[in-house]
Amino acid sequence: MQVLVSVSSVAEAQMVLSAGVRLIDLKETAYGALAALDIPLSAAMVAAVDSYRQQHPQAGIIVSATIGDDCSSAEALSELIQSRLDIGVDVIKLPQTIWANAAYTAVIKAFLAQRVKLIAVLSADHLSGTAAVSTMLQDLASARYWGVMIDTIQKSQAVTALISLDLLGFFVQSAKAHGLYVGLAGGLQLAQVDSLADLSPDYLGFRSGLCLNQRREQPLIKEKLHLVTAKVSAFC
Asked: Which stretch of DSSP H or E encloses residue 6?
């Protein structure tokens, strides 16, 4: 199991790398659940990661990026994805408002056919029972998504306040059975690592729980970064 941390600046990217984080998520943290950073800033952050990769070739770092909570058209979606691939982003995260919208299916299929690594982000606020989860995961696996994760729209509540541990565990194991790289995120705090680690996801995603005053738009706290990486490493 690994730690994913969402970052919004070059300095934050360098900070999380130095703390041993290997899943770097580029995201605008000042607003929206999956708001996208602009391309020039994203490119600078990818360059910083690439510099670290050159010095630590065995680190196995993966850079993901969000593309926004929604978009205006299929053409806009294609540009949002391709522009991030062009600067070296490894994985693209798509919100449920996009991947579950039939208007974008053709564009998404085209990228999946090229073996682009896409993660479908499921909204914890709308997740129902095991039957719906099973159907959803089967469809995503059949479409050849690389991964899937649960996240929250509003960060004031942790994912564990919205979804039972039993359903989260079912989600993780079902996703793995379908060969999907699976993560859990959404307002997570250090205190929740133990219970979620027992579910054996591939990664846990953090932002607000590592920030000043538990606010995702505030700076990351270095000490909390080191605490969470050490805590998660204990389960590896």
From this structure: strand 2-7
Instruction: Write phi, then psi, for 164 (nearest 5 degrees).
Output: -65, 155
Please measure the distance between the N-terminal and C-terminal CA atoms of the chain and give it in whole angstroms. 6
Which own/partner pairs from 110-117 qualify as long-range (CB within 8 Å, at least 24 positions apart)? Answer: 110/78, 111/81, 112/143, 112/144, 112/145, 115/144, 116/81, 116/85, 116/92, 117/90, 117/91, 117/92, 117/146, 117/147
| Nearest C-alpha neighbor of 27 from the set 208, 231, 232 | 208
- Check: CB of residue 152 under 8 Å from CB of residue 131: no
Place of tokens 């941390």: 5
pLDDT-based confidence at residue 234 (cuts at 50, 70, 90): confident
**Strand, coil or helix: what is 61?**
coil
Tokens of 235: 């389960």
d(CA 38, CA 28): 9
pLDDT tens digit sequence for 62-112: 999 999 999 999 999 999 999 999 999 999 999 999 999 999 999 999 999
Q: Pick from 78, 138, 85: which is nearest to 103 by CA?
A: 78
159, 179, 155: which is closest to 167 by C-alpha? 159
Q: Is the model's pLDDT at 126 over the cut of 80?
A: no
Please give the positions annotated as active site: 27, 93
Domains of the chain: 2-233 (3.20.20.70)
